[in-house]
Amino acid sequence: MRATAIAHPNVALIKYWGKRDVQSNFPAVGSLSLTLSGLNTRTAVSFEAARSTDEVLINGQSDQRAGIRITRCLDILRDLAGVDSHALVESTNDFPTGAGLASSASGYAALVKAAAAALGLDIAQSKLDEIARIGSGSAPRSLHSGIVLLDIASGGVDEMTCRTVCEPDAWPLAIEVAITSRAAKDVGSTGGMELSKKASPYYQAWVDTHPADLAAGLTAVEKRDFEGLAEVSEQSCLKMHAMAMSSQPPLLYWSAATVDCMHRIRELRRQGLPVFFTIDAGPQVKAVCLPEAAPQVKAALSELPGVLDVLDSRLGQGAWVE
Q1: What is the pLDDT of residues 96-113, one digit of tens each?
Q2: Coil, helix or strand for 98?
Q3: CATH assignment of 2-167, among 3.30.230.10, 3.90.1150.10, 3.40.50.720, 1.10.240.10
Q4: What is the dotted CATH code of the domain comprising 174-314?
């Protein structure tokens, strides 16, 4: 009972930040994201009768903290399969881990895809999305291709749907990822979300204004309106980070190079280049652009002090079994 899956991380254009319910890891708001090719998580899951507990290795190192949530996901899949064997989970990333590049999203997407295959389960995609969400609120998005909508039911009902709204070849976009640090961030996304919910005066305004941002983002995608998508995506990004910074104690995920990248990208757009930025909970900057602009964007970011590397990406496919 062994299988291996590969998943790409994703970057949210219309962000989610905050949990409606911490225990179920249910997001407070929906999100619109890009699944990124060129950055890969490869996860192998082996169920072994002789094991007394699950073991988790991430980039070759034991990770007991991640193991708790991984076991929660595996328990659901074991129950569905009617087996009680524990598993060895071996996951590797070819990009910085825990540093604001959604390694948890791709990790849990690859985990549930591999574990379901190892157990011989043929379950609905919506069920797989739900199980992945228990590990990471953004993991369902990495199970889907291209531009992805994770929609949350209104009225306090804990229901979600996740689906592709634009396939990778329907609107080819390029993403240049400026790496400004390879270190893991001090405060993870889950802890940061809870802090902002409790201690930011802007949190409720974030939740209240979010539906309009999500609707604007979807409309821009439907119309292939790059400028419209740029405006609402940068606004969503800055609103999220304003909420994080206004928490107590403040959450400042940016580095000096992060800010320099933002200024350079806005300068390029003023010069007529089709590009905009988005930043998740970390110091890395994702420059979303039309493919013909990618070489110029990469060159402009690469020359900035503090930028360690610029990774090329395009829209990618959802998680798959190797």
Answers
A1: 777 666 688 999 999 999
A2: coil
A3: 3.30.230.10
A4: 3.30.70.890
